């Protein structure tokens, strides 16, 4: 009987505790899911990625900007916060790190220049959560705005690929955040936005109650699968099983993303799927005048 299956009569059903990231990891690759969430100690990861350093630095600076007193919420202060909190992991050398620090500083200064510093968000880096009969799901939202009587989910993106309305519409994470925010803050939330700083663009989608229910139902379906896999993992470990049955239960899903996987060194299928990437290869290209050129193949970024 699975973790989310029928329990003893009269006993409450055990909820699967998760985040949207955990659910998406199961969908993307059960092998990576096992390495990330089940194996303890977890397999050693590869080197840090420069594009993750860019994303985290930008996110941290924007969160800190909203925590500043109103009179200090200026683009110049945003630039200072970015520079002070700059993360240097994954870059080819100091020159590349400095170049991207300056580009990221320009991004946050330009972006904060479009914001009204007096328009206080309802939440910044706010954790929201909810429960259904199947899952206990939670996540941290970059920003929650209030516009009129509605809440709006805002997610910052710094990846190389420009984003579209379809990205906002199909995002399981954004839909789950909208449901969680509505239930935690007791206010309607249907609109979700992806703010892509490299291109200064915003991709939006306004959900209906039906589309939010469908996303939540999809999250429950994924959770059912992952919970059963979790239980199988525990059973196999209890039997002191060797690696092959674990690999069979948690198959790799080889593809282009394998070149960017933190656990590539531990997965023969992933290594065969494509060449290893250098830690800085996920960065967008820079034109001769230093402008960021979006597009091209690359990993998802924060």
From TrEMBL:
<dbReference type="GO" id="GO:0004527">
    <property type="term" value="F:exonuclease activity"/>
</dbReference>
<keyword id="KW-0347">Helicase</keyword>
<feature type="coiled-coil region">
    <location>
        <begin position="212"/>
        <end position="239"/>
    </location>
</feature>
<keyword id="KW-0175">Coiled coil</keyword>
<protein>
    <submittedName>
        <fullName>RecB family exonuclease</fullName>
    </submittedName>
</protein>
<dbReference type="InterPro" id="IPR038726">
    <property type="entry name" value="PDDEXK_AddAB-type"/>
</dbReference>
<keyword id="KW-0227">DNA damage</keyword>
<keyword id="KW-0547">Nucleotide-binding</keyword>
<keyword id="KW-0269">Exonuclease</keyword>
<keyword id="KW-0540">Nuclease</keyword>
<dbReference type="Pfam" id="PF12705">
    <property type="entry name" value="PDDEXK_1"/>
</dbReference>
<keyword id="KW-0378">Hydrolase</keyword>
<feature type="domain" description="PD-(D/E)XK endonuclease-like">
    <location>
        <begin position="19"/>
        <end position="267"/>
    </location>
</feature>
<feature type="region of interest" description="Disordered">
    <location>
        <begin position="271"/>
        <end position="302"/>
    </location>
</feature>
<dbReference type="GO" id="GO:0004386">
    <property type="term" value="F:helicase activity"/>
</dbReference>
<keyword id="KW-0234">DNA repair</keyword>
<dbReference type="GO" id="GO:0006281">
    <property type="term" value="P:DNA repair"/>
</dbReference>
<dbReference type="InterPro" id="IPR011604">
    <property type="entry name" value="PDDEXK-like_dom_sf"/>
</dbReference>
<feature type="compositionally biased region" description="Gly residues">
    <location>
        <begin position="293"/>
        <end position="302"/>
    </location>
</feature>
<keyword id="KW-0067">ATP-binding</keyword>
């Amino acid at each position: 009987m699975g973790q989310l299956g029928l329990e003893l009569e009269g006993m409450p059903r055990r909820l699967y505790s998760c985040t949207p990231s955990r659910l998406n990891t199961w969908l993307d690759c059960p092998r990576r899911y096992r390495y990330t969430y089940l194996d303890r100690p977890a397999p050693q990861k590869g080197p840090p990625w420069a594009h993750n350093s860019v994303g985290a630095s930008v996110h941290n600076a924007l969160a800190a900007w909203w925590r500043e007193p109103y009179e200090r919420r200026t683009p110049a202060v945003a630039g200072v916060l970015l520079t002070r909190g700059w993360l240097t992991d994954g870059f080819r050398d100091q020159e590349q790190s400095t170049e991207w620090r300056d580009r990221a500083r320009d991004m946050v200064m330009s972006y904060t220049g479009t914001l009204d510093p007096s328009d206080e968000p309802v939440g910044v880096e706010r954790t929201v959560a909810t429960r259904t009969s199947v899952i206990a799901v939670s996540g941290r939202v970059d920003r929650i705005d209030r516009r009129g009587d509605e809440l709006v989910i805002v997610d910052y993106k710094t990846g190389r690929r420009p984003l579209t309305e379809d990205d906002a519409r199909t995002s399981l994470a954004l839909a789950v955040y909208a449901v969680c925010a509505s239930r935690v803050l007791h206010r309607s939330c249907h609109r979700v936005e992806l703010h892509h700083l490299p291109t200064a663009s915003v991709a939006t989608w306004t959900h209906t109650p039906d589309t939010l229910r469908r996303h939540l139902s999809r999250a429950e379906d994924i959770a059912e699968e992952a919970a059963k896999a979790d239980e199988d993992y525990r059973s196999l470990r209890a039997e002191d099983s060797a690696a092959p049955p674990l690999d069979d239960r948690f198959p790799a899903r080889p593809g282009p993303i394998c070149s960017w996987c933190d656990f590539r060194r531990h997965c023969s299928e992933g290594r065969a799927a494509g060449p290893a990437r250098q830690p800085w290869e996920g960065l967008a290209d820079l034109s001769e005048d230093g402008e960021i050129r979006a597009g091209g193949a690359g990993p998802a970024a924060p």
